Amino acid sequence: MTPEQAAAALASAATLLVVLDCDGTLVPITDHPSLARPNRETLTVLEQLTGVDGTHVAVVSGRPRSQLEDLFPVPGIELVGGHGSEWEGADPPVDEDDRHLLDEMRSWIEDIAAAHPGSLVEIKPASVALHYRQFEGDEASLVEQVMLGPARLPRVRVLAGKKVVELTVSRRDKGDAVRQLMERLHPDLTCYLGDDLTDEDAFAVLGPNDIGIKVGEGETRAVLRLESQADVLPFLQNLVRARALQPRV
Hints:
This protein has two domains: 3-90 and 172-245, HAD superfamily/HAD-like (Rossmann fold, 3-Layer(aba) Sandwich); 96-168, Alpha-Beta Plaits (2-Layer Sandwich). Helices cover 35% and strands 19% of the residues. The chain has eight helices and ten strands. The protein has helices spanning 3-11, 40-50, 65-71, 96-114, 139-148, 174-185, 200-204, 232-245; strands spanning 16-20, 55-60, 78-80, 120-123, 127-131, 157-161, 164-168, 189-194, 211-215, 224-226. A six-stranded parallel beta sheet has the order 3-2-1-8-9-10, sandwiched between helices. The protein has a four-stranded antiparallel beta sheet with strand order 4-5-7-6, covered by helices on one side. Strand 2, helix 3 and strand 3 form a beta-alpha-beta unit. Helix 2 runs parallel beside helix 8 (232-245). The model has no long low-confidence stretch (mean pLDDT 92).
C-alpha cells in the first residue's frame, strides 16, 4: 500500500477516525521537549481535517494533556495525554499512593540524571521520564541504572522510547486510548500515525481494514511507512483533499 492508496481508502469512509502521535509525528524530535511545536501548516491541516464532515481527529501522546492543549488549539480535536491516561474532564490519573511512588521515582531518577550531565528529567502527572538525547556518555549504562533502580519499584511500568526511558504508575497505554475512541465514535475506518515504540500498542488494536502508519525507521505492526516526520504533513494534506472531494460509501 502506498500513501496515496491509503489516503484514497480513508477518504471513502463514511466516518473516519484519525489518531496521531505528537513528537516525531506531528512535530519534529528536538533536544528538549519544550522546543518542539507544530508549525502553522500542521495546525491548518488539522483544522481542515476536523472540519470535514464525518471526520474525527485525536492526538494521543505521552505528553501531559495540558501541554497538548497549548500545542494544538484546534476546535473539535480530541487530546489525550499521558500515553492514554489523561482525558478531558476525567479524574486525575493518580491517587495518593501513586503520588508517593512518583515522588520516590522522581528523587531516584533526579539523582541518576545529576550524575550524568546532558540527561534531562521530565515530570508528568503519572510518570517520570529521563531523556538522554544530549547525554554523550554510555547510554546503555545510564538506562541500566534506571532499570536496576527505580524501574524495580512496585507497580512501576517501563515505557521505552527514542533516547528516553519513562517510568509510569499508569496501567493505560496508547492502545487503550485508541480502543476507547473507537468504541465511543464507532468509525468505519481508523488511521493511526506514530513513530515510537509506544505507538505499537495503538497499531495492535486496529482492525483488519484500519490503517496503521509508522513514521520513520524500526520494526512495526503498521501496514504502511512514511520515511520521516517531514512526510506526515503532505500525507495529511493529501488526505484532506481526497476526503473533501471523494464520495463516501
